[in-house]
Amino acid sequence: MSQEADTFGPDPREAEMLLRNVAPTDIDAYVAMRCDPVMMAELGGPQPREGIDPKVAKDVADAEADVSWIKMIVLDETRPREVAGTVTLWRNHHGDDFFSEIGWMVLPGHQGRGIGKRAVAALLADARADGRWGLVHAFPGVTNAPSNGICRSLGFELLGVEEIEFAGRLFTSNHWVVDTGSG
Ligand SMILES: CC(C)(COP(=O)(O)OP(=O)(O)OC[C@H]1O[C@@H](n2cnc3c(N)ncnc32)[C@H](O)[C@@H]1OP(=O)(O)O)[C@@H](O)C(=O)NCCC(=O)NCCS
């Protein structure tokens, strides 16, 4: 093994990636992602800590019921509780208009290494194989360069700019869509 591989481990672009369902033990990962002002800068600001336990409980229930796909990104299968981020596919609605939406987060120590893009590509591949999700929409903030990069490079089509709500806050986002078939 080379000195470089020894020191830094396998290149994350080549390594296996596990997407596993969210679990009750993921509260710390949710806090690190959702209560951090830098992580939430493009998502309307940090969320209150007191909302996290009920949010994890609801997400665990929705994932177990297969209502939503709420996946934690794991880079080392032997340490499944160590989370690099999350990617989620769910049914959202504007009034009576229901649609599939995908969202993602990668923790700061893992950003800029292709992990977000690979996780989104993997979940979209699963969605295509599953066939229930149809057109999948994404709404990254207009200034969120890596998230818009993920959409652009994974074949999403840009429909325009919209005011959208995330966790009760409004912000200006690009509206992207990709077709995963059926739906
Ligand atoms: C957005 C986020 C998920 C990106 O994850 P990531 O693993 O760092 O992104 P990747 O390394 O897979 O890069 C994705 C694309 O963006 C590009 N990119 C990455 N960082 C970038 C940056 N700072 N500026 C411009 N482009 C960037 C990459 O080159 C890649 O595009 P390419 O395939 O054309 O080369 C991560 O930064 C994050 O969680 N941010 C905070 C929360 C958030 O904004 N969530 C998304 C809400 S929609």
Automatic annotation (TrEMBL):
The chain positions of domain N-acetyltransferase read 17-172
Pfam annotation, one family: Acetyltransf_3
Q: Which domain of life is it from?
A: Bacteria
Task: Report the protein name in the record.
Answer: N-acetyltransferase domain-containing protein
Which Gene3D superfamilies does UniProt cross-reference here? Answer: 3.40.630.30
